[in-house]
Structures are given as C-alpha cells and as structure tokens.
Amino acid sequence: MQSKTSAVLVYLFSAAATCAWMLSRNPSGGNTNARLLFLLVFLVIPLRFVFACPSMLFTSPAGKSRTIFVILNVIGAASTIFFFPRLAALPFPNNPVRDVHPIAVLIALIIALPVFLVALFFKNRSSVAILASVLFWAYIPFLALVTLDRFFYESPLYATFYFLCFVSPAILAFAAGTLHHYPKFGHSLALLAGAWTLTWLFWVELRDSELENAWIMFNVPDKDIGSYPVLHAELTILAIALIVVTSATATLGLLPPHWRFRKLPLCNRIWPAFALSFMVLAFWFSQSVMPYRIPGALDSDYPILGILHVEKGGLQFHETSISVFRHYSFYVSQNDRRLLQYRFQQESSWGQLPEALMRRVQDTVQSPDFAKRDSSIIKPIRTWNADGWYLLVERSGFHPYTSDAGTTLPQEIVPLFHALEAAPRSPVTQTARKDVCLGFCYDPLSGLGRLYSNHRCFNDGKGFHCG
Predict the structure, then answer these.
(1) Nearest partner of 382 among 309, 292, 285, 312, judged by Cα
(2) In whole angstroms, what is the distance from residue 258 CA to residue 263 CA?
C-alpha cells in the first residue's frame, strides 16, 4: 500500500542519494570520502529547513507573509536558474567562486547555517522563514559553483540541467514536506524533479558507456581501486534506482482514485515503483557489462603468439594463458574460477625464452595454418564439460578450437604450449580479479589479456563498438 509516510521516505531517500551523487561527481583531490561527508554536513541543515517549509507555509494563517514568501522563492528560483549557467559556463579562471580560498568558503557556509537553524527553531516566525528562504537561493548556487569541476565549460543548456539536478534534492525535500498538506502538488513537484534528474543522469552517465560506466567499475582490481571513482559509480546506481522509484511513486500518486488493480486504487500502491526500478537496473546492467572489460586504457606490447587453454567442468574453470613477445619474453597466467563467483585469484609470472624455443614460436606464427586472418567469433564455453583452445596469432587474429564446436587444433600447439609452460620464469605473483556478472562475462579474450576498454572497444567512425 502507498501511504503518505512511505512516499515521504522515498522522496527523502532519493534526495539524499541524488545529493551525494552530485557532490561526488567532481572530486578535487584529497580524501574523496571525507570531502563528500564534509559537503553533506553543509547540506543537511538547509535541506531539513526546506522539508519544514511546507509546514511553516501551509499551517500559518494566509496573509501577506505567505504571499511574500511565495513571491520571493519564485524570484529566487528563477534568478538562480537564469544566472547559474552564465557563471558556470565562464571559461577557467573567470568563475568568480571556483577559486575562492577554502577558508573563505568555510566561513561563508558557517555564517549561513545559523540562519537555517534559527528558522527551524522559530517555525512560527514567518519573517525568519522568509529570510532563510532568500538566503537559500544564494547558498545553493554558491555551493554548486564551489563544487563544480575546475575546467567545466559546457553549453548553457548543459549547465542549466546541472544546476537543476543540484537543486533537485531540495525540490524533493519540499515535495516530501508538502505531501501531508497538498498531496497532488507534492507528487507533481517530485515528478518534475525526477524527470529532469533522470534526463541528466542518463545524459551524463550513458555517454561513452562503452569505455566507462558505473557497472564495469566493479571489475577494477583491488590494487587499482584508488585510481578509479568507484564511490561515484556506487552512488550513480543508487541515485538512478531511487529516482526511478520516486518518479514512479509520484506518477502513481497522481492517478485518479477510480483506477484500480485487484480492487485497490493504483494511487495507493507503491510496489510497482520498486518493480519498475528493478527492471530499469536489470536492463541497464545487461547493456553495460558485456563484453568483459575494466574501465580505462592500458597500453602494452602485443604478443606475437598467445595461447589460452580452458578446461571447464560444471561451474569450474581452469585457465592457463601464455603470451610470447618479440624480445624473447613470455608471460604465463593461470586461474581457477567458478561461475556465480565475484572474485577469483590469478597467478602470473614472467620469463625469457631460450633461442631454440623462440624459433619454435616463430615457426608456429609463420605456419600455413595461420596464413589467412581468421574472422571466427570468440564465444565463452557454455556446455557443462568442455575443453577449449584459443590462439592469438600476430597478423592472423584469433583462432578458437573447442570440443563442442568440433574444430581441430594444429598438432604442434600442445607440445609448444607444454614447452613454454615448463620454461624457467619468475616466482608466481597473485592478482585479485573480479567479474561483476559473477563469471558469466569473463571470456576467452579476457583470458588472453584483453582486459581493458581500449582492448575491447574501438571507434569505426560511426561510434564505439565493443566485442
């Protein structure tokens, strides 16, 4: 059942998630978590004041003070929406706030907070509420400009949507406070804030999603996690989930009472909002995680020969990959992973090949078997028990040989593979690998070392494609 209380909680949680997501977008160095916590502290009290505003507005006697309150807030909102894009779009270093000394910013924020606290304490004093509301429309754009990316330079439309999303937590907080007085008005405000926030979320988060998106951030190895905005990815997913719930809840709340499902008014139900959010997340996830990749680019020497042997027994995989490079060096990696397992360990080591073994590798690369470039599609093994060999040959591409496909592996490959495996090499080191889709995305190309976005995605002139 949808009640005013459940809708209020949805709107407030959505406001908190959106607020955290906006503040995590442009980290300016240092401890991102501490910075985010610091900024949230300076938004909690103003947002609490905004949540209390409907009670101050609608429970006080109608009169001149209420009219002044409404007029000043309309003027404040319109003015900030008009001026913010013009200040935000100024090229570096002309933004008047972005380079203010941090101590000055802190002093300005500390001076402003007591006004909101006093307004909360003296709820029956309309003059204090009017002063706090006027201050709010200076406080919010100031904080938005302070936290803006140093080199932000976008179109006025983009900057306008940025500010609308920055102020949307306040709109949602006001909508939540309005529900107990004028439910239709509160739901309408929440729907409006949800609509423009979702528009901007998809606009900024789905651009270049092939190279980097929130979901593949969870493939980043633990040793590299400090170099990636993983916290922002987590907040992105949470914000989208809750904004979808908010938009759907507001839509349901605005439906006519005579629209029923199983004898109950649709406007009194909230579970469809969570069901819709789950479906949106599932679709977004399915479009984002394939093929397996880690965000970012890794530039490295490409091998002249790569051999991957995959043995699958039920849910268990045993994979051994050997890559041979031009200057007699070779790399061996092994893992034992399972489907439905998020983390697995990969063992790796390096070595230098003796000249005789290197000649065998070169003879294999120049074999007539690989004279033509193979255009076969590399697919993961899906049968319950299977054995697969995958070759990466310089100037010849990828060549799969799997038991379920019935293809025949060139006879020199297995002896060469075992000879390379037995060659002297460095002590084994372990690296933790992750697969956000629990082993189902990690494929033979990943096993051959094609792990990063620049290994799997390319621009053919018509946009990025991944394979």
Answers:
(1) 312
(2) 10
Q: Which of 109-113, 147-151, 338-342 has the highest mean pLDDT?
A: 338-342
pLDDT in tens, 221-235: 988 888 888 888 999
Q: For the stretch 56-78, what's the b/e string if a residue is b when 16 or more beta carbons lie within 10 angstroms of its beta carbon?
A: bbeebeeeebbeebeeebeebbe
Work out whether strand 329-338 and strand 397-402 pair parallel, antiparallel, or are unpaired.
Answer: unpaired
Beta bridge partner(s), residue 256: none
Distance CA 328, CA 351 (A): 8
**Plot region of 395 (φ>0 → left; ψ -120 to 50 → alpha; else → beta):** left
3 state SS of 28: coil
Q: Percentage of the chain with pLDDT > 90?
A: 42
Residue 163 backbone dihedrals phi, psi, to 5 degrees = -70, -40
Q: Where are the domains of the chain?
A: 4-288, 305-450
- DSSP state, 302? P
Token pair belonging to 408: 């025949």
Q: What b/e string do you get for 279-318 counting C-beta neighbours within 10 Å, with b at 16 or more?
A: ebeeebbeebbbbbbbbeeeeeeebbbbbbbbebeeeebe
Calculate Rg over the CA atoms of the chain: 29
Say how far apart CA 66 and CA 60 lie, in whole Å: 8
* CA 377 to chain centroid: 29
What is residue 447's predicted lDDT score, i.e. its pLDDT?
Answer: 92
Q: What share of the chain is helix, strand, coil (3-state, %, to 5)?
A: 55, 15, 30
Distances from the Cα of 317 to the Cαs of 264, 336, 387, 402, 452, in angstroms?
51, 6, 10, 14, 21
Q: Name the token pair of 101.
A: 């000394």
**Other CB atoms within 10 Å distance of the CB of residue 322:** 22
CA distance 307 to 321: 6
| Angstrom distance (rounded) from CA 340 to CA 440 | 8
Can you list the alpha helix ranges (DSSP code H) found in 206-316?
Answer: 230-253, 271-288
Q: Name the residue type at position 73.
A: N
Q: The whole model's pTM is what?
A: 0.87
